[in-house]
Write a structure and sequence with these properties.
eight-stranded antiparallel β-barrel; two-stranded antiparallel ribbon; 64% strand
Length: 201
C-alpha cells in the first residue's frame, strides 16, 4: 500500500514538472505540529521525569501537486509523513502516519491564500525501540478536516515556471483508535496546530 502511494506521488510529480507553469505546480512542505492526546505515557527511571508520546505533535513533511483553476482558486493534493518520538537512554517510542490530503485554496491576494479540505491518515502506528524493540501497534484514523493560511514571499508567475517559497499556519482535526481493542480502547485526539515552510515550482 505504502509503495503504491509513493509511486503515485512520484508519477504526479513527473506530470506536474512537465505541465504548463500557470496550471500545475509541484508542491512540498516541512513543518512542526503541537497538540493531541498522549498515545503512550510513562516516567523515565531513575530521574522520575514524565514523558508523553502525542497523537498530534511532531515533524511533518508533504509532497504533492497544486492545480490552478483560475487566478483565485486552486486545488492541492499531497501525501505526507507526520512523526512524534520520545527517546530515552535505553528505550524509544515513535508514533507515525502517512496523511493524504485534498484542499481547495482561495487567493485573497497574490501572496495570501486560505484553504479548506479533508485529510485521511494511512499506516498510523506506534512502535518501540531499545528495550521495547518489537512493540508495534496499528491505529485507524478518522477522516479529518484541515484549515490552512499561506503567505508567499513572492507573487507566483503567471507565465513562467519559477520557484516560490512561503510559510503556512494550519489546524487539523482528526482522531485515532487502536485496531487492537485489547491494547487501547480510547479514541485519541490527534488534532493539532502546525507551522512551517512550503515550496512551489
Amino acid at each position: 500500500m505504502k509503495k503504491s502511494l509513493i509511486g503515485l506521488a512520484l508519477a504526479c510529480a513527473a506530470v506536474v514538472a512537465q505541465a504548463d507553469a500557470p496550471t500545475l505546480r509541484f508542491f512540498g512542505s516541512v513543518g512542526y505540529a503541537v497538540g493531541g492526546d498522549p498515545v503512550l505515557s510513562g516516567t523515565w527511571l531513575p530521574s522520575g521525569e514524565p514523558w508523553n508520546l502525542r497523537a498530534g505533535r511532531g515533524g511533518t513533511l508533504a509532497l504533492g501537486g497544486d492545480v490552478r483553476l483560475s487566478d483565485r482558486f486552486a486545488i492541492q493534493g499531497s501525501m505526507g509523513y507526520h512523526r512524534d518520538s520520545i527517546d530515552g537512554a535505553d528505550a524509544n517510542f515513535v508514533f507515525s502516519r502517512v496523511p493524504l490530503e485534498l484542499l481547495g485554496f482561495y487567493s485573497v491576494t497574490e501572496q495570501f491564500r486560505l484553504g479548506l479540505g479533508a485529510r485521511k491518515s494511512q499506516s498510523a502506528k506506534m512502535q518501540g525501540g531499545g528495550t521495547y524493540e518489537g512493540l508495534h501497534k496499528a491505529y485507524e484514523s478518522s477522516t479529518g478536516a484541515v484549515g490552512e493560511a499561506q503567505y508567499l514571499f513572492g507573487a507566483p508567475s503567471k507565465s513562467d515556471r519559477q520557484p516560490v517559497i512561503g510559510m503556512y499556519l494550519r489546524y487539523v482535526n482528526e482522531s485515532f483508535k487502536a485496531k487492537d481493542a485489547s491494547w487501547d480502547t480510547r479514541k485519541r485526539d490527534g488534532s493539532h496546530v502546525a507551522l512551517g515552510l512550503m515550496f512551489y515550482y
